[in-house]
Write a structure and sequence with these properties.
Radius of gyration: 14 Å
Structural class: mainly beta
Number of domains: 1
Mean pLDDT: 93
Strand content: 35-45%
Low-confidence stretches: none
Helix content: under 10%
Largest sheet: 5 strands, antiparallel
Number of helices: 0
InterPro entries: Phage_VT1-Sakai_H0018 (IPR011231)
Number of strands: 9
Distance between the termini: 30 Å
């Protein structure tokens, strides 16, 4: 195929803020995990698929398979489908309330809400 670019599991994006390796990066509706540290405005590789331990809303209990969102205001994963939160995948394992991290399987897809009607 002449028009094939790449699998898309790793993508280069412009860091919207200073990010550390392993941190969540949200660019529009594209979410991934930074592979390296990057300054705001610099190019950074992000993993858009896979299973990662991410900071989570501590006061939530997750069940395996529950939908998980990224809260850009708090820079953490959450089970709350609040306005402004972006669906990033599902819980790969149960997480207790309280706990600081949760295991998330990234879906690698742009949420349907981002598709114009």
């Amino acid at each position: 195929m002449k028009n094939y670019i790449q699998p898309g599991a790793m993508m280069s994006v412009t860091a919207p803020a200073t990010v550390a390796s392993g941190a969540g990066v949200l660019v529009g509706m594209l979410f991934g995990i930074a592979a390296t540290d990057a300054a705001s405005g610099a190019s950074v590789e992000i993993a858009t698929a896979g299973v990662f331990d991410l900071p989570k809303t501590s006061a939530q209990a997750w069940t395996a398979g529950a939908p998980i969102y990224w809260d850009p205001a708090e820079a953490e994963a959450t089970s709350a489908a609040d306005a402004g939160n972006v669906l990033i995948g599902c819980a790969a394992a149960a997480a207790a309330n309280p706990s600081a991290t949760g295991r998330v399987r990234l879906n690698g897809a742009v949420p349907a809400a981002a598709v114009p009607a």
